[in-house]
Specification:
heterodimer; A: 179 residues; alpha/beta; 3 helices; 27% helix; globular; B: alpha/beta; five-stranded parallel sheet; four-stranded parallel sheet; 14% strand
């Protein structure tokens, strides 16, 4: 399956501005950082969570606890893969009960990954609420899941894919649609 | 820039350490640490193996290994079934092959087996379609024990390469020693084996280990002492004159450690301990002992093994 870049949606500056706006929106909706924690879904969601937390700290002057979650063990499609995917670490070093969780992922598609993350979070405690922030929403939801904060809405076809590249794990910063 | 981890587990069965590469062993250890995190939660459970069934087929007594495998499967959300030969139709003369085939017909996903015959898990793997995990076969191998031992060492000392490990006891009858030696050598440890001459297999140096019959030599300079259980039920084979003599010549005592071992030397034992024989009471319960940690790590290791083997197409 050789996919080629059909359209470049965001470059490094675009990603930077989008994450800044998302940070502002989160602060506006939650009226500050009280009881707020940010948890990113591994791997790129976790990097984005860190960046958003840094933005929020720069704006409000207060630190927000950041965690990272690996959802591999909660997937519903493990019997369909050829060999088990590697489980990465989950690091949530704070109690989430009573907290407002901002769950962060790079691309929202069918919503199944988010469903996994919700199951995983509930196993860790009883949060006050869970809000979803995504860099890209590409449509085609298969579950009743909706984001609270969106970087960019990109309508895509089923045979296309959205690729997010971040310098923490890739050699460049950009968001592309591949077909 | 962090590299993506692209390691893959491709084996359908876990029959021994001998055939594993260092990379495969490290993969299991790394994944075990992920499961340690799950076990530390207030709800130590994940839904990963929901709907799967793991059968514990134990044809020899076991406390630790069996409990550990059962808990590991349950913590992964799987259903478990325990069959012990002493209370099953094995007593009516049913063969291992028939037993396994009948269980397989009831739609199970993995068999964890402990058996007194070396090679029994390999034999089983030849005619069942499910994954087979060796929980100890005769004097041959006990792979998950070696893996949890190595994980314990790695977490306590930060590494395996160059670590000096002395394995003490009835080496010739010990599957724990055999699997342990394979794992330690593949990961670059420095291994010494020590025990009575009657209990030392011929040509064991060919596994790359140093042999000594002097407990003081084994303890001197060791970072890890892995003390094996003396199998009292074998006493009738007259491999040593008596338990007291074994304890005097090879037992690990506080005095021995104080005289020859370092402060950081850790004491390991696969269990069950014969208190006062291979380990004195104060050493078994002392500050250098990591025996209970081993038991705890065993659950995480077995979760990692069940997880990694679970996807391999039936």
């Amino acid at each position: 399956m050789n996919l080629k870049i059909k359209a470049k949606i965001l470059d490094a500056e675009g990603i930077k501005r989008t994450l800044l706006r998302i940070a502002h929106e989160i602060l506006e909706k939650n009226q500050g950082v009280k009881d707020l924690v940010i948890i990113g879904i591994r791997t790129r969601g976790a990097y984005l969570a860190e960046r958003i937390a840094r933005n929020m700290e720069a704006i409000e002057g207060k630190k927000v606890p950041v965690g990272a979650m690996d959802i591999t063990l909660y997937r519903d499609d493990l019997s369909e893969v050829a060999s088990q995917p590697i489980v990465h670490s989950t690091e949530i070093d704070f109690d989430i009960s009573g907290k407002k969780i901002i769950l962060v992922d790079d691309v929202l598609y069918t919503g199944r990954t988010i469903r996994c993350a919700l199951d995983g979070l509930i196993d860790h405690g009883r949060p006050a609420n869970i809000q979803l922030a995504v860099l890209v929403d590409r449509g085609h939801r298969e579950l009743p899941i909706r984001p609270d904060f969106v970087g960019k809405n990109i309508p895509t076809a089923q045979n296309e894919t959205v690729e997010v590249k971040l310098t923490e794990s890739d050699d460049r910063e950009e968001v592309d649609v591949l077909a | 820039m962090k590299k993506v981890d692209e390691r893959k587990w491709t084996r359908k069965h876990l029959l021994g350490i001998e055939e594993l590469s260092a990379g495969e062993i490290e993969l299991i250890l790394d994944q075990s640490e992920r499961f340690q995190e799950v076990l530390a939660r207030s709800i130590p459970k994940v839904p990963t193996l929901r709907g799967r069934t793991v059968v514990n087929l134990f044809c020899e007594p076991s406390t630790r290994t069996r409990a550990s495998f059962e808990l590991a499967a349950k913590r992964l959300g799987a259903d478990t079934l325990n069959i012990s030969s002493s209370s099953s139709s094995f007593l009516k003369g049913e063969t291992l092959k028939d037993t396994a085939r009948n269980l397989e017909a009831m739609k199970i996903d993995a068999i964890v087996m402990r058996h007194p015959c070396s090679g029994a898990p390999y034999f089983l793997s030849q005619f069942v379609k499910v994954s087979v995990i060796n929980a100890g076969d005769g004097a041959h191998e006990h792979p998950t024990q070696a893996l949890l031992d190595v994980l314990t060492i790695r977490q306590r000392l930060g590494k395996i390469k160059g670590v000096k490990v002395s394995i003490i006891g009835d080496i010739s009858h010990s599957r724990v020693a055999r699997s342990g030696i394979w794992a330690l050598k593949k990961l670059g440890a420095d291994v010494t084996v020590c025990g009575p001459k009657t209990m030392m297999p011929a040509a064991i140096e060919k596994m790359g280990v140093r042999v000594t019959y002097d407990i003081k030599e084994a303890v001197k300079g060791a970072d890890v002492l892995n003390v094996l259980r003396i199998q009292l039920e074998r006493e009738e084979n007259m491999l040593f004159p008596g338990i007291r003599e074994y304890a005097q010549r090879f037992g690990i005592t506080r005095q021995l450690l104080e005289k020859y071992a370092g402060d950081k030397t850790i004491i390991m034992h696969p269990g069950p301990i014969n208190r006062g024989v291979e380990l004195s009471q104060d050493v078994a319960d002392g500050k250098n002992s990591v025996i209970l940690e081993q038991a705890k790590n065993g659950v995480a290791v077995r979760m990692a093994v069940l997880y990694l083997l679970s996807s391999i197409k039936r």
